[in-house]
Amino acid sequence: MNKWKIPGLVILSTLVLSACSVNSNADQLYKQPKPLSAHVMLPENIEPQSTQVLKVHVMQENKTVDDAKIVQFNVWKKDAPGKVETAKAHYDGSMYKAKASFKEDGIYYIKTEINARGEHILPTQQVAVGKLSKEELHSLQPAENETHHHHSHH
């Protein structure tokens, strides 16, 4: 009787394990991330000593996101990275808007912080305000207007 225990266990284990197979569509059974996208709209020309309206259209799966927890613009001058002005944006029925002031000529960065539906994205753009020196013109980076995705699941 004992001599059939081990072969029987081997055969039973083989049958049980062969019944388990990997479903090739198993990844479809899990919740798929739906990344946010943002289209940041900045004025073409920004003059020093001016206040500008910054706009961002936030989307997910080609639908407007109107329930973001946080939408704000962080603005700082390139040569003064410690002086960040934060402008909280408000939804106006079609997009998020906020006002930011640009005090003097130079290169500024505008980081749009968006936190919605478990996603956190931070598209950042560079803008020229007023007249730039040759060195500043040389350091301008090409415009990048679309989103950077950072997944945040807290």
UniProtKB/TrEMBL annotation:
Protein name per the record: FixH family protein
Keyword annotations: Signal
All copies of domain YtkA-like, residue ranges: 31-111
Superkingdom of origin organism: Bacteria
Record bears the keyword Transmembrane: no
Signal peptide interval: 1-26
Pfam families reported in the protein's UniProt record: YtkA
